[in-house]
Design brief:
Blueprint (H helix, E strand, L loop, with lengths): L7 H12 L14 H12 L5 H4 L5 H8 L2 H6 L4 E2 L5 H6 L5 H10 L5 E5 L5 E6 L2 H4 E3 L7 E2 L1 E3 L8 H5 L7 H8 L5 E2 L3 H4 L5 E2 L20 H12 L6 E3 L4 E3 L10 H10 L12 H14 L20 H4 L4 H4 L29 H11 L6 H13 L1
Parallel strand pairs: 1-5
Antiparallel strand pairs: 2-3, 4-6, 7-8, 9-10
Helix pairs in contact: 2-13, 4-7, 12-13, 14-18, 17-18
Length: 385
């Protein structure tokens, strides 16, 4: 274990940084009903009893206790909520050792991870929440440490690298897991062993969108249920004959919470684009280009034709078909274009690194006759959404 202790200068510097980092760049998601408040607690802190897997089977608590120092956790994309951080206590417990990680967990400051402790001060149980993948922070204090941003995908999270540390996987499986790009996850890997990792999607701006997943297999509560039971390994029920999945566990700690979870997720607006991030005049011109070339599928205010029941074959939009082939629909929905400025890479597989790449892709696949100026204007419009 690393026993290095911070110097007085380091402590003073961090204290000054914390004092100046109290302002939020983006406001916290505002809840207005009791249902939304319940959903926020579920989204942020409810493990659905998945400690049964992450502790008893995966032995994650042992990995954290033995190997994960705070700097390594940050390097793996784990985020720290500074509003729950007791900086003085954290520094006393050595921010450069695994004792610092335990202190962060004890404070409930690690986004998406929940731990309970025994009388000896060591982790007794550990579980994960929805926020692990679908929240991030604004880096107000330091990179990876800041005010919580619910619904923003954690595109820094190295899910595969984290899973590959667990003893439940074979060396061959660990090789596959380590190959997953940062900010991606494969929600079918534990069923068929194939690997086509998906970019972690945002969970904001989803109000009035009927089917939130890349392949539109069901509404948001369907996906929340699927993930909570089959991926987070929560203690609940999930059944879909199309997948050949029928999991029944009593008590069901998932189903009674789905309505509140949906209410909160639907209350999270897409973050507005900072004015300095795009050229307003170019965006205005780009909207004309968009309406002429893109609005057939990205329709009206919701910007997706899937609300009308439309799905698209991978070949229609030039998408890789590998993941779709593993799903019930075999097709992709049109993605609603919300908050694009802050969650690249794009497409389900992250194959477009920037919005310029997105435009170039469709110009090529759809044979759009756009000039260089029109493409640049279109990118500015996409940034403004």
């Amino acid at each position: 274990m690393n026993t290095m202790r911070p110097t007085l200068g380091t402590l003073a510097a961090l204290t000054l940084i914390l004092a100046g980092a109290s302002c939020r760049q983006f406001p916290d998601a505002r809840v207005t009903t009791d249902m939304e408040r319940q959903g926020r607690e579920i989204f942020r802190y409810d493990t659905f009893g998945d400690e049964q897997f992450w502790t008893d089977t995966a032995r994650l608590h042992e990995i954290v206790e033995r190997d994960i120092q705070p700097l390594e956790a940050l390097g793996l994309g784990i985020k720290v909520d500074m509003d729950r951080l007791n900086l003085a206590k954290f520094l006393i417990h050595n921010p450069f050792g695994t004792t610092g990680t335990r202190e962060l967990l004890r404070e409930g400051a690690v986004v998406g991870l929940r731990a309970t402790f025994g009388d000896d001060g060591h982790i007794k149980r550990i579980g994960i929440t929805c926020a692990l993948c679908h929240s991030t922070v604004d880096n107000a204090l330091l990179p990876g440490i800041g005010h919580r941003l619910d619904g923003w995908p954690n595109r820094d999270l190295k899910v595969g690298r984290i899973l590959a540390k667990l003893p439940i996987y074979t060396e061959a499986q660990k090789t596959v897991l380590r190959s997953w790009p940062t900010g991606t996850y494969d929600p079918r890997f534990n069923f068929d062993g194939k690997s086509t990792p998906l970019v972690l999607p945002p969970a904001h701006g989803l109000a009035e969108v009927k089917n939130e997943t890349y392949t539109a297999e069901g509404p948001i509560s369907y996906w929340n249920n699927y993930v909570a039971v089959t991926q987070m390994h929560g203690h609940g029920n999930f059944s879909d004959p199309r997948l050949g999945v029928n999991i029944v566990q009593e008590p069901d700690m998932v189903t009674p919470k789905l309505a509140a979870l949906r209410a909160y997720q639907h209350s999270i607006p897409a973050p507005p684009t900072p004015g300095a991030f795009y050229d307003a005049s170019a965006a205005s011109r780009g909207k004309v280009v968009f309406d002429a070339n893109c609005a057939r599928c990205h329709v009206d205010g919701r910007l997706t034709d899937n609300n009308n029941g439309v799905l698209h074959a991978p070949s229609e939009t030039g998408m890789d078909s590998t993941y779709a082939a593993r799903t019930t629909q075999k097709q992709y929905r049109t993605t609603p274009l919300r908050g694009l400025w802050q969650h690249g890479p794009y497409f389900h597989d992250g194959s477009a690194k920037s919005l310029d790449d997105v435009v170039d892709h469709y110009v090529r696949v759809r044979n759009l006759q756009l000039s260089g100026g029109q493409k640049r204007d279109l990118v500015q419009y996409l940034k403004s959404l």
